[in-house]
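Propose amino acids for all 653 sites.
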């Protein structure tokens, strides 16, 4: 058992809410900072605690990402909901001192909303902040790292001031390796295990985080895996269909999460590179190296992997650890401890230093260097297999928006179908190397009939399937962003003629290459004088003519349609596509379109107030009186639609 000189009367819990792992990585970095200040630390996901557990700690730190439409990550929702109980009072969290880090993306309208809501509620319940909260932005030049690292130094000083070290105590130096809280070991035989029971310092534990994932998953069979773009097109896009015999209800905007596996060739390379051949296929187990007394709550001890009975190093590396990830800064610090080459060690530690953040980005993030490639280049690094769960990040499920809705969701026998539109990630980096997405590379090679463990995710849900009746929608999508919009269109088709009217503005490169579901849209558009489902489709094929045409150009061209849907039909806007500039450009185009129509109507002598909605019996008197004549008016109007849930966006990196 390690003795790291911690003062067990000084305790901290660092909670993370995450979908991608970024919050967890920052939480662990904060935990290491506090451990060096002689705090006993628990770094765990929100799902592992309830609010009463906070009273057992000197300090609580929250690291929370914002997802979807200003939502909490899935693993933080139960904790958040528990804070909203009416029976809680202004003294429920009295005596709790905390710090908070929010991770967000300013290309989303509700930037860092989860962190802001959590901070407000903590204050209402009596908790006290020891430092101004950090709001990090993925769109910043230095990503979220820059803001978090700057805040971390201020946080460290605040902690030292508020909780000074005892007489004669000093912080643990940065060059001293902190002891691991987890390690792998050979799994003893039954006889050995019986003899060792009661005398071992370690304890085999299961992972609550993984077990909860397991309890939500179900088996689905791959029914289709078809390329829908031409072979000569730059991107391989697949139409995939999964089927489960169970009847499962889902709605537009829901997603399917799939846990990928690493390729056997990559796993074999790593095992050989580290000389792990002798232990690769023997039974192993994960154990805690901490005394029970060092944690305030035994149930807080979690690990990133299953407590799997037939665990081996090979299947651990194949199924549970992301050995092809683009490494975070903490990875370089971890592997620097396992090289005897001074030059390599110095270089690795530079990548962890905040003042060399640009070098880290230039080396790892921008060229998308993988963990395996880095271990090739720093060939003096030799990792102990017992520490791999402390070094490699956990494999995380990837989410894909469901493209099916309405009558496409279920077969006559009651089984459920999930249709997906998946872009296979493969590209050449700035250093001319081919990169492939871990999950899509795995999915691309799966044959029809493959059984997969998947789970249903509802955080991106636009509306319940039963709620779309009577609603009009202005749908704006680019590329594979059409998937959830297709689900909504088919949901409305199934409810026709009750469903309100829909306009779809779709952008892609070419009508012949990536106009996904184009035949369906043609079939759904009403013929002249017919009573077919009302669907307006406007396309922007950027490469089919000399001058590129984008979605935002079509929005401005069809300002009359924008005005009709927003001001007369009271439609809900849904924007789906890549994050970054696309949603910002769309929003500005909507502002311009509204102003253009307002000016046109003013010039013609018409009121800029909207007429009574044509497809609803209910009019919104406030909206009817709200004028939109300037850019400022239009921006305020769209902001109000966001607040009302009538402007939604689903984007991804």
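Proposal:
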């Amino acid at each position: 058992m390690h003795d790291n000189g911690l003062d067990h009367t000084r305790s901290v819990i660092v909670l993370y809410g995450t979908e991608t792992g970024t919050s967890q990585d920052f939480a662990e970095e904060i935990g290491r900072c506090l451990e060096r200040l002689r705090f006993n630390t628990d770094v765990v996901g929100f799902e592992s605690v309830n609010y009463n557990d906070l009273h057992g700690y000197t300090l609580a730190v929250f690291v929370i990402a914002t997802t979807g439409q200003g939502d909490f990550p899935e693993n933080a929702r139960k904790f958040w909901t528990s804070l909203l109980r009416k029976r809680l009072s202004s003294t429920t969290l009295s005596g709790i001192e905390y710090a908070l880090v929010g991770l967000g993306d300013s290309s989303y309208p509700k930037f860092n909303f989860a962190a802001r809501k959590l901070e407000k509620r903590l204050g209402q319940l009596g908790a006290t902040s020891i430092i101004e909260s950090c709001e990090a932005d993925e769109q910043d030049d230095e990503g979220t790292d820059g803001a978090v690292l700057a805040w971390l130094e201020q946080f460290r000083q605040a902690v030292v001031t508020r909780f000074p070290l005892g007489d004669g105590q000093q912080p643990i130096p940065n060059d001293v390796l902190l002891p691991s809280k987890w390690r792998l070991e050979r799994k003893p035989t039954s006889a050995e295990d019986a003899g060792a029971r009661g005398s071992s310092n370690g304890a085999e534990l299961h992972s609550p985080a993984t077990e909860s994932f397991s309890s939500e998953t179900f088996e689905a069979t791959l029914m289709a895996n078809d390329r829908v773009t031409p072979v000569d097109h730059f991107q391989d896009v697949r139409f995939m269909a999964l089927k489960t015999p169970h009847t499962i209800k889902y709605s537009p905007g829901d997603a399917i999460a799939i846990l990928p596996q690493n390729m056997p060739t990559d796993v074999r390379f790593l095992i050989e590179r580290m000389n792990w051949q002798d232990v690769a296929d023997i039974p192993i187990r994960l154990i805690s190296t901490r005394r029970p007394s060092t944690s305030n709550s035994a149930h807080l001890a979690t690990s990133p992997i299953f407590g799997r009975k037939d665990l081996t190093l090979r299947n651990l590396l194949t199924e549970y650890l992301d050995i092809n990830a683009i490494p975070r800064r903490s990875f370089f610090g971890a592997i620097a401890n396992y090289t005897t080459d001074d030059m390599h060690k110095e270089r690795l530690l530079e990548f962890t230093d905040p003042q060399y953040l640009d070098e880290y980005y230039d080396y790892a993030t921008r060229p998308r260097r993988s963990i395996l490639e880095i271990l090739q280049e720093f060939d003096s690094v030799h990792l102990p297999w017992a520490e791999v769960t402390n070094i490699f990040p956990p494999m995380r499920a990837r989410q894909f928006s469901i493209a099916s809705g309405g009558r496409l969701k279920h077969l006559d026998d009651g089984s459920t179908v999930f249709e997906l539109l998946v872009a296979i990630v493969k590209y050449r980096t700035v250093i001319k190397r081919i990169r492939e997405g871990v999950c899509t590379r795995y999915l691309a090679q799966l044959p029809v009939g493959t059984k997969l463990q998947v789970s249903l995710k509802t955080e991106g849900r636009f509306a319940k399937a039963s709620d779309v009746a009577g609603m009009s929608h202005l749908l704006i999508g680019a590329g594979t962003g059409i998937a959830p919009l297709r689900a909504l269109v088919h949901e409305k088709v199934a409810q026709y003629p009750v469903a309100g009217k829909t306009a779809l503005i779709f952008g892609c490169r070419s009508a012949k290459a990536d106009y996904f579901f184009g035949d369906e849209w043609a079939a759904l558009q009403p013929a002249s004088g017919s009573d077919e489902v009302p669907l307006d489709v406007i396309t922007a094929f950027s490469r089919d003519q000399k001058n590129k045409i984008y979605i935002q150009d079509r929005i401005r061209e069809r300002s009359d349609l924008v005005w009709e849907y927003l001001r007369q039909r009271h439609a809900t806007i849904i924007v789906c596509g890549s994050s970054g500039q696309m949603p910002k450009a769309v929003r500005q185009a909507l502002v311009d379109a509204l102003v253009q129509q307002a000016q046109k109507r003013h010039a013609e002598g018409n009121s800029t107030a909207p007429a009574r909605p044509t497809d609803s019996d209910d009019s919104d008197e406030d909206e009817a009186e709200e004028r939109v004549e300037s850019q400022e008016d239009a921006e305020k109007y769209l902001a109000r639609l966001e607040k009302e849930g009538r402007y939604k966006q689903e984007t991804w990196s």
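The chain is about 30% helix and 20% strand. The two ends are 43 Å apart (CA to CA).
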